[in-house]
Design goal:
CATH topology of the largest domain: Dihydrodipicolinate Reductase, domain 2
Shape: globular
Helix content: 25-40%
Number of strands: 12
Structural class: alpha+beta
Number of helices: 8
Number of domains: 2
Length: 283
Amino acid sequence: GIVNGTCNYILTRMEKEGLSFADCLKEAQRLGYAEADPSFDIEGNDTGHKLAILTTLAFGSQISADEIYLEGISNITIDDIHAAHDLGYRIKLLGVALKTATGIEQRVHPTMVPLNSVIAQVDGVTNAVALESDILGELLMVGPGAGGNATASAVLGDITDIAKSRPGAQQVPVLGRPAHLLEPYAKAEMTRHEGGYFIRLTVVDRAGVFASIATRMAENAISLESIVQHAKPSASEDESKTIILVTHATMESAVRQAVSAIKGEGYLLGEPQVIRIERPKTA
C-alpha cells in the first residue's frame, strides 16, 4: 500500500505539475506535510516501520522493521515520471509484504503501477492499503495520511489501545494476538523476488551499445517486453542517448547481475535507474 502521505504528495505534484523533486519537497515542508529533515519520510523509513506493523497484523509474525528492503524516492526524476506515463504507469512509493514458501518478503521502494489500477488513483496526502485474502479477494482501505488531523487521530487510537489493557494482561491484543504468541519472523531474500522491471540507461551514443545491452540481458535470461531509445538531435559521437527497457517477470538477482555487467562496459553515463513494476489484480 501507500502509507506515507508526504511521498505520495511529492510524486503527485511532480506528475501533475511537472515540478522537480526538490521543488515539491520544499512545498511539502511549507505546508507541514514534511519535516525540516525529511529523510525519514523520503528515504522510505517511515513506510518501512508502518509496513512492519501491517505485516505482523496480516501474518502473525514478530515485528521485524530492520529486515525490510528500503528504497526512497529522492532519486526519482521528472524524466522517470514522464517515461512511466508514456508506458501506461504511475510511480508510487509502495510498502509490500508477501508470504512465500521461503518466508515473508517485505520491501519498500518506488513502484510503477498501471494507470487504470485503483491504487494509481490515490493522490496527494491520501494513503491506501490493499489486502489480498484467500476468500474475499482484494480489499482496499483509503484515507488521509498526513497533516495534523490524520496524525492526531492515529496517536489517539494508539492511546486508546493502551487504555484497553491492564497490567500484565492485554484484554484486546493490538497485534491481533498476545505478543508472546507471535511467530518468529522468517525472511524471504529480496534477490528471490520476481516481477517486472523498468530500467533506464543513459549511454554514449555509439555503435554496438544497444547490442551489448541486449546481450547482457539475454545472458541473465531476462525477457524484454519493450525497448525504447531516445537520442538527442545531434548525431555527434559524443552525444548521449537514453535507453528504456521494460522486462517481463524476472528475478531480482538476474536484474542486478545484468545491470552490474552493463556498468562494467564503459559506455554508461551516470547511474542506471531501476524501478520495479507491480500489476495489481484489481484494476
